[in-house]
Amino acid sequence: MTAYNPLVLISGVINQLPPGAGVIGGELTAGSGLTGGGVVQTGARIDVALAATPSGLIFVGDALGLDGHAQASGNAALAAARDNANLLAQAPVNATEGQVFFLDAVTTLSTVGAQLDSFASGTYASASYQVQAKRGNEVQTSDVKLLHNSSDVYTTEYAILYSSGLLASYSGEFNGGNINLNAFPNSSANTTFRVIRYAQAY
C-alpha cells in the first residue's frame, strides 16, 4: 500500500499536509476548508471552496490528482479548478527571443478587415499564426506568416484546409507604430476567428 498525504485547503489553494500525516489506500481526509469532515473515499464527492484562479493543482484524467494518482472527481468546484488550471497551462510562453500566445476570439459581421492581432513594430520582427475561421458549421484553418522590416509588411497564407469552401483571407499592415494582422471574410455572415500566435523578437 502507498501512503498519500491528504489534501487540505490553505488560503484558497489545495495543499498537502506535512509528512507523517499520510493516509493509506488513496483516501482523502477532509480538513480545513473542506465540507463534511471525516474521511472521504477515493472517487467520492468532495466539496472544496477553491480560489478563483488556483495554482499548483495537478489533474489526472480530469480528476484532482496527487503523485500521479487520481484522488477526487465529480465536483463542480474541482471541474472549475481543472478548467482554470488548463487555462494557466495555455497562458503566454514568454522568452527573450519571443512569445507563444492564445489570442482572444474575434467575431465579425463585415467583409471589411477585422483586426485579429496587433503588436508594436519594435517588439517582434516576424510572427506565425494558426488561424481558425468558423461560420455556422463551416470551418477553415490556415497558417499565416508575417514579417516586417520597419517599413513594409509581408504576409503569406498556406496550409489552407476547409470543410466546404474558403471563408476568409488574411493580410498584414502597418498602423502607426504597430503591425496588425487583419482577416477579410468573404461574407457578411457571422464569422469567428481563433488565433494562436508564435512571435520572434525583433
Structure write-up:
The protein is mainly beta and 202 residues long. It folds into two domains: 3-89, no CATH class; 94-201, 4-oxalocrotonate tautomerase-like (Immunoglobulin-like, Sandwich). 7% of the residues lie in helices and 51% in strands. It has one helix and 19 strands. The protein has one helix spanning 76-89, and strands spanning 3-4, 7-10, 13-16, 23-24, 28-29, 39-40, 59-60, 63-66, 69-72, 93-95, 98-102, 106-108, 114-120, 124-135, 138-148, 153-162, 168-175, 178-185, 191-201. The strands form six sheets. Strands 10, 11, 12, 14, 15, 16 and 19 form a seven-stranded antiparallel sheet that branches. Strands 7-8-9 form a three-stranded antiparallel sheet. β7 (59-60) and β8 (63-66) form a beta hairpin. The chain is globular, with a radius of gyration of 23 Å.
Distance between the termini: 55 Å
Which architecture of the largest domain would the CATH scheme give at its second level? Sandwich
CATH topology of the largest domain: Immunoglobulin-like
Structural class: mainly beta
**Tally the helices: what do you get?**
1
What is the overall silhouette? Answer: globular
Radius of gyration: 23 Å
Which key features would you list for this structure?
single chain; 202 residues; Immunoglobulin-like; 2 domains; 7-stranded antiparallel β-sheet; 51% strand
Secondary-structure blueprint of this entry?
Layout: E1 3-4, E2 7-10, E3 13-16, E4 23-24, E5 28-29, E6 39-40, E7 59-60, E8 63-66, E9 69-72, H1 76-89, E10 93-95, E11 98-102, E12 106-108, E13 114-120, E14 124-135, E15 138-148, E16 153-162, E17 168-175, E18 178-185, E19 191-201
